[in-house]
């Protein structure tokens, strides 16, 4: 007997019904009802996205969800903005939202659950429906650009093959260390996921000090992306982007990224970026002022305050590059002049 159908008939085609979360142990899912504006406003597709208005939805078991899944839009129209964390990815995602036809998804919870349950067969059974539901858009959508949580890059080897194109956004190690060391919460977030980040990666020199452990997390993502980029099955589908290039000249840098995803920016692209005021606002909170000058001041203060930790990380990274024979990554350790 088929389960009763409560979801709308366009569920399998429309992004108006995001899969908010799933529970593999209970074989249960939560589906919400979103408008396009909900996606544009949301910096995180988790509980924080629910605060602006009352959002309706459904609690379903897996059988009911599967019964509502019909032919989904092509997975090749799902592209990825992976990143090393706290490197401007929210800003870049919001800039891409300005490209006509782009639906930006920032940090969907189901992807985080898939990453943390990578080795759990019950969790992996949700991978196909999660991807199918990410592929949905609105009538004017041409592509979906997903910016996952940074740790989801550990799952990139499974997410990329059936989908579209990917980019790894990064900043130089010295800048990244200054960013991370200023906030104990950011440090804890990275160190708490060390086992997941380091699994299936090359053996690296031992790291004990906090700066060295952070540097190891940064380097692992560079090495992971290098391995993915060398996969013949992904040839021509992956690039990486230094966030400094975006800050230096936002319009051409983001235009190149859009072109990588098969999208064209409008002729007035630079003017659209300026009019959006995204470059003068904190990307995770549009109400907070945060421009290039504020960013420089904040980083300079952090670099001075945490000079010892940054030095530990830089020393470890250089020794690690020498040990594993990847000296060509050395220019990525420091800001370009």
Walk me through what this model shows.
The structure is a single chain. This protein has a domain at about 75-100 and about 140-330: Rossmann fold (3-Layer(aba) Sandwich), CATH 3.40.50. It is built from 16 helices and 10 strands. It has helices at about 35-40, 60-70, 90-95, 110-115, 120-125, 125-135, 155-160, 175-180, 185-190, 195-200, 210-230, 245-250, 250-260, 270-275, 290-305, 305-325; strands at about 20-25, 30, 55-60, 80-85, 100-105, 145, 165-170, 240, 280, 285-290. The strands form 3 sheets. The chain has a 5-stranded parallel beta sheet, sandwiched between helices. Strands 1-2-3 form a 3-stranded antiparallel beta sheet. The radius of gyration is 20 Å and the shape is globular. It starts with 18 loop residues before the first strand and ends in a 13-residue tail after the last helix. The model has no long low-confidence stretch (mean pLDDT about 95).
Query: How many angstroms separate the termini?
Result: 67 Å
Do you know the CATH topology of the domain at 73-101 and 142-332? Rossmann fold
For the record, the CATH architecture of the domain at 73-101 and 142-332 stands as 3-Layer(aba) Sandwich
Low-confidence stretches: none
Number of extended strands: 10
Mean pLDDT: 94
- What's the main sheet like? 5 strands, parallel
The secondary-structure element order is: EEHEHEHEHHHEHEHHHHEHHHEEHH
């Amino acid at each position: 007997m088929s389960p009763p159908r409560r979801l709308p008939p366009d569920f399998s085609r429309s992004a108006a019904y995001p899969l908010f979360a799933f529970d593999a142990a209970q074989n249960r899912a939560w589906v919400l009802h979103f408008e396009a504006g909900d996606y544009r406003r949301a910096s995180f597709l988790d509980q924080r996205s629910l605060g602006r208005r009352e959002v309706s939805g459904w609690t379903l078991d897996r059988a009911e969800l599967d019964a509502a899944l019909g032919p989904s839009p092509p997975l090749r129209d799902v592209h990825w903005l992976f990143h090393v964390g706290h490197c401007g990815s929210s800003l870049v995602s919001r800039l891409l939202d300005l490209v006509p036809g782009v639906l930006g998804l920032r940090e969907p919870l189901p992807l985080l659950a898939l990453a943390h349950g990578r080795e759990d067969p019950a969790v992996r059974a949700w991978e196909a429906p999660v991807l199918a539901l990410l592929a949905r858009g609105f009538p004017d959508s041409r592509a979906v650009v997903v910016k996952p949580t940074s740790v989801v890059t550990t799952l990139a080897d499974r997410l990329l093959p059936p989908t579209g194109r990917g980019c790894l956004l990064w900043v130089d190690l010295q800048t990244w260390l200054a960013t991370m060391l200023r906030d104990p919460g950011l440090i804890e977030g990275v160190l708490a996921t060390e086992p997941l980040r380091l699994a299936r990666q090359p053996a690296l020199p031992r790291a004990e000090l906090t700066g060295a452990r952070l540097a190891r997390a940064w380097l692992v993502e560079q090495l992971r992306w290098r391995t993915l980029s060398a996969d013949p099955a992904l040839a021509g589908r992956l690039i990486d982007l230094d966030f400094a290039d975006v800050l230096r000249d936002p319009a051409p840098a983001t235009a190149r990224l859009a072109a990588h995803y098969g999208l064209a920016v409008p002729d007035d692209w630079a003017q659209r970026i300026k009019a959006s005021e995204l470059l003068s606002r904190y990307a995770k909170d549009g109400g907070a002022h945060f421009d290039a000058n504020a960013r420089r001041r904040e980083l300079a203060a952090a670099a001075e305050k945490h000079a010892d930790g940054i030095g530990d990380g830089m020393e470890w990274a250089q020794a690690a590059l020498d040990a594993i024979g990847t000296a060509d990554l050395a220019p990525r350790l420091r800001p370009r002049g």
